[in-house]
Amino acid sequence: MKKLAKAAAALSAILLLFALLVGAILRIFTDKLWVEEEYKRIDIEAQSGFTAHEAAYVLGRMMDYSVGSFDGLDGVTYTENGESVRFFNESELSHMVDVRVLTTTVLKLGLAALIIGFALFVLAFVLLRLAGLKAFAKAFLIALGVLLVVIAALGVWMAVDFNSFWAAFHVVFLDLESSTFDPAVSRMIRICPAELFSDFIKHFALIAGLGLILPVGLSVFFLCIKRDNGFGRKLLPFCLISAGLCAFLARLLTGMNAFWIVSAVLLICGAVSVAVLRAAKTRAELLSNQARGEADNG
After folding, report:
1. Which end of the chain has a smaller Cβ tally under 10 Å, C or N?
2. pLDDT of residue 125
3. What is the rounded distance in angstroms from the CA atom of residue 65 to the CA atom of residue 224?
4. How far is CA 207 from CA 31, 44, 264, in A?
5. How far apart are CA 132 and CA 125, in angstroms?
6. DSSP sequence for the chain
7. Is 297's pLDDT higher than 70?
8. In the prediction, which pLDDT does 84 show?
9. pTM for this one?
10. Alpha-carbon distances of 203 from 109, 117, 200, rounded to whole Å
11. What's the confidence (pLDDT) of residue 226?
């Protein structure tokens, strides 16, 4: 049972790391302000003929469609010579269907990883207490180390030849032939230059890095604890407050307002549990002093 619980802790670490990365991806797909600022920085109007605001609006619709929150991509238009013209052609719409399938699949896997990973984490803690937390922390840091090595290798590849990396990505996850467009006739490809996707990846790395600060800090903290010493009883407020901070971080990453409520509830419960533990400790000290006084008088 002990080995099984440690395996559950290790698996939960891997799943929660994956869920965090998916959360960073979702945050990118909702960060419309960054998109418009990025378009201004790379001077998209000189490359595509569309202003930064126009290009950001269309890409925003593409991103909403990709995550399943918008269905009218074929109705997106722009004004040309005073007339309203459909922005996307049939080939581009077909490609975006493939992108939507890939993106929504990843988001569903991320949600499943979050639920299963959290359940396994709770199971490991219930069965092993501090040993379960240490097993989780060790597995999380090892998985993160492996991930960083992979990211470093991909980073070198992108720095040397981003176009070949991007083509390989489409070969693995999409259909390369249906993802290849002529900039002379494709408005979509003109507002999606390679530089934009390269900066998207850098932005993702920044968001994911910020999101890793708290779990890495907790993992190091768990590994530094030498012995239980009543830690299990004290862990409840610690976990509630940590979970509240994670929910707050999830709100920043995903933009989902529901995380505000979750964060507030967890932080309030954490504060209440701290107060209850302090009250219980104070009462125990009073009873102990009372008993000592009675013994001295006797």
Report:
1. C
2. 77
3. 45
4. 11, 24, 22
5. 5
6. -HHHHHHHHHHHHHHHHHHHHHHHHHHHHT-HHHHHHHHHHHTHHHHHSS-HHHHHHHHHHHHHHHTTS---GGG-EEEETTEEEES--HHHHHHHHHHHHHHHHHHHHHHHHHHHHHHHHHHHHHHHTHHHHHHHHHHHHHHHHHHHHHHHHHHHHHHH-HHHHHHHHHHHHS-TGGG---TTT-HHHHTS-HHHHHHHHHHHHHHHHHHHHHHHHHHHHHHH----TTHHHHHHHHHHHHHHHHHHHHHHHH--THHHHHHHHHHHHHHHHHHHHHHHHHHHHHHHHHHHHHHHH-
7. no
8. 82
9. 0.72
10. 22, 26, 5
11. 67
Contact (Cβ atoms closer than 8 angstroms) between residue 281 and residue 297? no
At 77, list the tokens: 């238009």
Place of tokens 């000592």: 292
Q: Give residues with Cβ within 8 angstroms of 21, minimum separation 6.
A: 110, 208
Residues 176-228 have pLDDT tens digits of: 565 666 777 788 888 888 788 888 888 888 888 888 887 888 788 778 876 65
